[in-house]
Design brief:
Chain lengths: 505, 319
């Protein structure tokens, strides 16, 4: 094992309430493309942030070309030759391609200005390396996503990065554009660069990667090893593991219960096509898919935020057009618990009482339209108590509660509003295991009491723990459906098979 | 020829320039005295000071912030300039240098507070507006300084050539300097980069705090320069100098196509924005409309300019 370029050993990292990485190691070699795999929440992004100097590890060490290094920030990692192409755009849109690439060393003084000829000629060199036929004077804002991605890579190269981390670089590319990118990555590898490739798409990984590290629940599911000899099924098994503790709850069936929410051949303005979905009273239907499959977007269409352009939406058997969120909540009793509780779910600077009560203010306001704290308190307090929200008082600011308790408050909001159909989006992101289990029990209890729940999650064990039926979505289409038999290995395989099934339609 | 035309049509300064030409032609048809040397001189005088005011705000818009204190800084610099000459008999050049230094210091103070605390520029400059204005009123007891040296007065009301007033000279230098700064100097490009995408700029090795300091220092310098120019033009050190700058300082860059979110401003667009305001003010006089309505027209113009820019951006995104 010579020419180790970047190595992380025994990395530990914890955030308040969450142990993100435990004894994680990875070793990247020059002249190789290394895949980093894992489910959402497995610790991939934390590991990347540690390697690129954004976070500091609590324990463990980083070695670059054999020598121990400590990065005090992203800048230091970059100047040490560790470049990263993030998912989010890191270019300045109004500036030209060349100026973006050369922003670090624009030159020019008081008397003689910046020499754009020189900057664009320099940029041309790096674009040529990528065989990118692009005028360096073009403003970045005029490029499509794929080109922007390639320009970012050119920029990373111009900083003489020998280690290049690519975080889901193909997420917004067409397969053709992805092929161009892959050709380039192979070329860079052959020239001795060390590449770390993060992707959810296993075909791509098997296509271009030489080595692999799999993370699961913040630990190494396998040490860094050659990819050769690992079949796709082996990768899936490593990613989802077998040791998952699925509580031994009885199977439930809502067969014969009245349908609460039905989508029939629905198309939306966001690009969903022929979506069929049925949600019965007392049933928890899981909607599984990878990031970008269109699940949250579908939820937002149901809530009336975006248009349903074709097909029928039925609530309790009645054809409905839902024009706005307030209509969805107050007229049809549909609630949506956002995956992004800090941005969309809660008002962090307001109290528990105000947050949990916001959706019932309308109902509780007296004839003059006035609202008394007493009325809200009487309505909300039992629900908060029932959910065992740990808060010193109802007056506590929600921002001061732990993530799990915040999530319970946003759940309380919908219970208080008396919704009968609840869409729950990634309920346990950033929540510790105990609270997660509690939230799972709560969802089951709500369903037992008659609520219809649509659970959106990328967390496979969560899906298999909670859902009665699992519907799989990919690329804004429903790919199929599985009855959940709570056998983890079998369900995991079944779901993956559905996602990767070439369009059966 | 055709691509060049397309380039012009897409430039930020093209719309405002077209409005100026159209308005001038319209007004001249109605009243040919609009193009008289005297009237042109008044137009240029109004534009000279206002364009420096507008640039002082524009550089802060470029970095993605706003500076509510430019008027207060300008006022403080103006009474310092006049006061140093009247009370301590400073020679005008030295008094002007001191006033500009006060402006730069005030700007750097704003920048340092914003960069070090991370509190929004709106809040910081709202507070410093009050501090600077209070100092201005405290020092002067709200009384103007009347004894302005003759050479300073001459600068404010004589012309270089034909209708071109002397005050147009510093204004022209400022416009040229700002264009060069924002298009050919590292500092200017970094200001636009931070305004356009601060995290990307930082990852490219741009120091965000130093860039913010630069922007506010330049802004303070320009506000002070406008204050000094206004003392020459009004022929007295009025403590109320700067009180009415704020709306114009935002209006001109916005009419000129600036993005208030930062990262994009147009020096010539801003210049033409100032000229439009001057032309409209003149037009109201010529058409005998109450000049107090200037504010109404200015407000409508801002709305129209923002709407137009939004439309252009939509088209731009579609291209």
């Amino acid at each position: 094992m010579t020419n180790l370029s970047l190595e992380a050993r025994g990395i530990h990292k914890s955030f308040p309430g969450v142990l993100a990485l435990q004894d994680v190691s990875i070793s990247l070699r020059g002249g190789s493309i290394h895949a980093l795999l894992g489910e959402n929440g497995a610790g991939k992004s934390t590991l990347i942030k540690i390697i690129t100097g954004v976070h500091r590890p609590d324990a463990g060490e980083l070695r670059l070309n054999g020598a121990p290094v400590r990065f005090a920030g992203a800048r230091e990692a970059i100047s040490a030759g560790v470049g990263v192409v993030h998912q989010e755009r890191n270019l300045i849109p109004r500036f030209s391609v060349g100026e973006n690439i050369g922003l670090e060393h624009l030159g020019g003084g008081v008397l003689h200005g910046i020499d754009y000829g020189k900057i664009h000629a320099e940029a041309r060199k790096w674009l040529d390396v990528l065989e990118l036929d692009l005028d360096p004077r073009t403003p970045v804002s005029q490029l499509n996503v794929a080109k922007v991605q390639l320009v970012e890579i050119a920029k990373a190269l111009s900083l003489r990065s020998r280690v290049l981390l690519l975080d889901e670089p193909t997420a917004s590319l067409t397969s053709q554009e992805a092929q161009v990118l892959f050709r380039l990555l192979r070329k860079l590898r052959d020239e001795g660069a060390s590449l770390l490739f993060v992707s959810h798409k296993l075909e791509e990984v098997q296509d271009i990667c030489d080595e692999v590290t799999v993370l699961r629940d913040g630990r190494n599911a396998c040490p860094s090893r050659a990819l050769a000899g690992l079949a796709r099924a082996d990768l899936v098994r490593l990613m989802i593991g077998r040791s998952e503790q699925i509580p031994d709850w009885p199977r439930r069936s809502a067969e014969g219960a009245p349908p609460m929410l039905e989508l029939m051949n629905v198309s939306t303005s966001l690009g969903h096509t022929s979506v069929n979905l049925k949600l019965r009273k007392g049933e928890i239907v899981g909607l599984y898919g990878l990031v970008g499959a269109g699940r949250t977007e579908l939820a937002k269409c149901i809530m009336g935020l975006h248009l349903i352009t074709d097909g029928d939406l039925r609530v309790e058997g009645q054809m409905r057009r839902i024009g706005s969120v307030s209509e969805a909540i107050y007229k049809h009793g549909i609630g949506y618990m956002s995956e992004d509780r800090k941005q969309e779910g809660l008002i962090l600077t307001h109290s528990v009482l105000e947050n949990a009560g916001v959706a019932v203010w309308r109902k509780l306001a007296n004839r003059l339209g006035l609202l008394t704290d007493k009325a809200v308190r009487a309505h909300v307090a039992p629900i908060i108590a029932g959910l065992e929200v740990r808060t010193p008082s109802l007056a506590q600011t929600v921002g001061n509660l732990s993530g799990g308790n915040q999530q319970k408050v946003s759940l309380a909001k919908w219970l208080a509003a008396g919704v009968r159909i609840l869409i729950v989006d990634e309920p346990s992101v950033g929540i510790d295991i105990k609270t997660k289990a509690h939230i799972h029990e709560l969802l089951r209890r709500l369903a037992d009491e008659g609520a219809a729940i649509l659970l959106i999650t990328s967390d496979m064990p969560e899906m298999i723990t909670v859902a009665d039926r699992i519907v799989v979505m990919d690329a804004y289409r429903i790919k199929g459906e599985l009855a959940n038999d709570r056998d983890y290995a079998r369900m995991g395989k079944g779901i993956m098979a559905l996602i990767h099934a070439r369009d059966a339609v | 020829m055709k691509p060049r035309l397309r380039l012009w049509l897409g430039a930020d300064w093209f719309g405002p320039l077209a409005i100026i030409l159209a308005a001038s032609i319209g007004i001249t048809i109605f009243d040919p005295s609009f193009l008289s040397p005297f009237n042109l001189q008044i137009l240029m005088l109004a534009t000279a000071v206002n364009v420096v005011v507008a640039m002082s705000q524009m550089i802060i818009i470029a970095v993605g912030q706003m500076n509510l204190a430019i008027g207060a800084i300008g006022g403080l610099a103006a009474i310092s300039f006049a006061g140093l000459m009247q009370v301590w008999s400073f020679p005008p050049a030295l008094a002007a240098a001191a006033a500009l230094a006060i402006g730069v210091t005030a700007g750097l103070l704003n920048g340092a507070l914003i960069a070090s605390t991370g509190i929004s520029a709106f809040i910081i400059t709202l507070a410093s507006l009050s501090v600077f204005k209070g100092a201005d009123l405290g020092i002067t007891r709200a009384q103007p300084f009347y004894n302005i040296p003759a050479e300073v007065k001459a600068l404010g009301d004589t012309t270089i050539l034909g209708p071109i007033p002397w005050l147009a000279l510093p204004a022209a230098l400022v416009v040229a300097g700002m264009w060069r700064l924002l298009n050919r100097q590292k500092v200017g490009r970094y200001i636009l980069a931070v305004g356009g995408n601060a995290s990307a700029a930082e990852l490219s090795g741009v120091s965000i705090s130093r860039t913010i300091l630069w922007a506010h220092g330049i802004s303070g310098f320009l506000a002070a320069l406008a204050g000094v120019m206004l003392v020459a033009r009004l022929q007295l050190g009025q403590p109320s100098i700067g009180d009415d700058w704020l709306i114009l300082s935002f209006a001109a860059p916005v009419i000129g196509g600036a993005a208030l979110s930062g990262g994009h401003v147009s020096v010539f667009g801003t210049l033409f924005g100032v000229v439009i305001v001057a032309v409209i003010t003149q037009a109201l006089v010529i058409f005998r409309i109450d000049p107090f309505f200037v504010q109404v027209v200015l407000g409508l113009l801002i709305l129209a300019a923002v709407g137009l820019n939004r439309m252009r951006e939509v088209r731009f995104a579609g291209a």
